[in-house]
Amino acid sequence: MIDPFGRTISYLRVSVTDRCDFRCTYCMAEDMAFLPKKDLLSLEELDRLCTVFIEKGVRRLRLTGGEPLVRKNIMHLVRQLSRHLDSGALEELTLTTNGSQLSRFAGELADCGVKRINVSLDTLDADKFHAITRWGHLGKVMAGIDAAQAAGLKVKLNAVALKDFNDAELPEMMRWAHGRGMDLTVIETMPMGEIDADRTDQYLPLSLLRASLARQFTLTDIPFKTGGPARYVNVAETGGKLGFITPMTHNFCESCNRVRLTCTGTLYMCLGQEDAADLRTPLRASEGNELVCDAIDEAIGRKPKGHDFIIDRRTSRPSVSRHMSVTGG
Ligand code: SAM
Ligand code: SF4
Question: Cys-Cys link to 64, which of 96, 106, 138, 311 (CB 3.0-4.6 A)?
């Protein structure tokens, strides 16, 4: 699959549910309206769609959400998809999780051929953790991280950098993560979906964070890539890697290799644009995959050049109306 700008699409992110057991303040409103359950693709349909994408050249697949591990019977889908790892058609099957259910699922994930996972963690302070996630408990996530590492999964931590919330704590988080053999990636908050808070108050450009970290640590740019948009530095003092995902201050769309599927079978060709393609109708219209293949080709043919996120005081509305949990991070 090659888009109009010559980019090869080889990475699919699948939001298997838009629901979640947390309500992170930068991600969701406390009182969220979720996609109607009747519109959900079944796990079999998700497997069929993912398989079509793999046949069309997807080599890496990430399950996300909402919280992927709260989708009922999610391990059935992971197990099904793992056959593509066994056959060699898929290079990597992974997931992004808030970690709350990892104690229960880490062993089975490893058994299905998942090698590495991303766990989102914005603070190491239990009270602050509860405040930012509204419903989460740090102890459960820590136990989940322990279980993942014990199962042999490589864990990368993702933290959204939030002004006056975790900026001062990030050096300590980095030392802690690197001390446990986990890389850490920091992310700029993106204007997606209505939330209760003001994003202008939360937004921290990572250029500022990097400058402040560079006063305490020796940061060396490295060409390391995990297939995503993060740019990495080596941190001499800790021996670990720190990644920066900067959708706001540095647009990385020129190297975009991905598309995103929602749990209702809607394909978003860009995280930061409203345009989407309905794959559920062609999927259900016939038992063969010809119609859905045509719909995918047509969608890839209109993948936009990039996003145009803006966060400032004059722009009070989010750049895209849907929440991150619909298309997945
Ligand atoms: N629930 C899972 C989790 O938290 O890892 C997976 C889905 S979550 C939407 C994926 C990632 O998106 C998380 O790392 C989260 O911190 C990040 N995220 C959510 N809303 C965001 C926003 N508005 N801007 C930047 N990152 C956001
Ligand atoms: Fe849930 Fe992840 Fe969004 Fe937090 S960031 S509310 S854990 S989907």
Answer: 96
Binding site membership of 27 for ligand 2 (Cβ less than 6 Å): yes
Q: How does pLDDT run across 210-245, given as a tens digit for each residue?
A: 999 999 999 999 999 887 789 999 999 999 999 999
- Whole-number Å distance, alpha carbon 291 to ligand 1 midpoint, is 32
Q: Residues lining ligand 1, judged by CB closer than 6 Å? A: 20, 26-27, 64-65, 67, 96-98, 120, 158, 160, 187, 189-190, 192, 324-325, 328-329
Question: Smallest Cα–Cα separation from 192: which of 15, 313, 302, 325?
Answer: 325
Stated pTM of the model: 0.94
The string of pLDDT tens digits covering residues 191-217 is 777 778 777 778 888 999 999 999 999
Instruction: Tell whether 49 is covered by a domain.
Output: yes
- For residue 302, how far is the Cα from the chain centroid? 23
The domain spanning residue 299 has which CATH number?
Answer: 3.20.20.70
Phi, psi dihedral angles at 174 (to 5 degrees): -65, -45
Selection from 193, 206, 196, 194 nearest residue 271 by Cα: 193
- The answer on pLDDT for 50 being more than 70 is yes
| C-beta 66 within 6 A of ligand 2 | yes
Q: Which two tokens stand for residue 264?
A: 């209702």
Q: Is residue 6 part of a domain?
A: no
Quote the CA–CA distance of 189 and 132 in Å, as a whole number.
13
Closest CA to 105 of 91, 119, 92: 119
